[in-house]
User: Fold this.
Amino acid sequence: MITQKMLQQKRIKSVIIDNGEEAIEHLKENQYDLVLMDVHLPGINGTEATKEIRKFDTKTPIIALTAISLNENREILLSYGMDEVIMKPFVPEEFYEIIFGFLAKTEE
Assistant:
C-alpha cells in the first residue's frame, strides 16, 4: 500500500495483484509499461511468477521489490528474468529514479 501511494503521488496508475498465480494470468490478458513484483507473494512467489511471465512476455520490465534475505541476492533474482531489484525499505528518491528510468525506456 505504501508503494501504491508513492506511485499515486507521482500520478502513476497502478493495479495491485495479491498473488503470483493471479499476476501471471492478469499479465497474459493485460499490458503494462512496468511490473513491480514482490518477491514474497502467497502461492507462487515473485521469482517463479516472473519466470512464468517471461515465457510469454520478454519485453515488459519487471522490477523485484524485496527485503533481500541471506537466501537471496541480486544476481539470483535477475536470473529469474527480473530487470532490476529494489530492496525494502527503500529510499524514495532511489525508488523513483529506477521507476522513471525504466518508464523512459518504454516510451522510446
